[in-house]
């Protein structure tokens, strides 16, 4: 019976985001919708198996988004690391080694 609850929950989320695409972009950004919904369903089913509520918490949704965006985030981190290599930090302030 819990699987039916999960299916209903996910379909309600899909309907909400289809009617409010701006909210989807605010929450998730540029990721694949189907992949996002699939990960939500998997996490919801995992919660049911662990005896928890099938409704995802904010943190669980954030974790899903971070996992889906991890390639983009790692590129950003690499860029920041490259830039920081050209900054000399002294007690007088930062000096950019251009």
Overview of the structural elements:
The protein has 98 residues and is mainly α. It has one domain. The chain is built from 4 helices and 2 strands. Strands 1-2 form a two-stranded antiparallel ribbon. Strand 1 (87-90) and strand 2 (93-96) form a beta hairpin. The N and C termini lie far apart (63 Å).
Low-confidence stretches: none
Helical coverage, percent range? over 70%
User: Helical segment tally?
Assistant: 4
What is the alpha-carbon Rg in Å? 20 Å
Category by helix and strand content = mainly alpha
Shape annotation: elongated
| Count of domains | 1
The biggest beta sheet reads:
2 strands, antiparallel
Number of strands: 2
Beta-strand share of residues? 5-15%
Biggest sheet: strands side by side, in what order?
1-2
Order of helices and strands: HHHHEE
Distance between the termini: 63 Å
User: What is the mean predicted local confidence, pLDDT?
Assistant: 80
SSE topology:
Elements: H1 2-19, H2 21-27, H3 33-49, H4 58-84, E1 87-90, E2 93-96
Helix pairs in contact: 1-2, 1-3, 3-4
What are the main properties of this structure?
2 strands; mainly alpha; 4 helices; elongated
């Amino acid at each position: 019976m819990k699987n039916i609850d999960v299916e209903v929950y996910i379909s309600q989320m899909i309907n909400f985001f289809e009617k409010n695409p701006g909210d989807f972009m605010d929450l998730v950004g540029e990721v694949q919708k189907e992949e996002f919904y699939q990960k939500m369903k998997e996490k919801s089913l995992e919660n049911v198996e662990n005896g928890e509520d099938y409704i995802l918490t904010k943190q669980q949704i954030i974790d899903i988004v971070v996992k889906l965006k991890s390639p983009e985030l790692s590129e950003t981190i690499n860029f920041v690391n490259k830039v920081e290599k050209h900054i000399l930090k002294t007690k007088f302030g930062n000096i950019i080694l251009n």
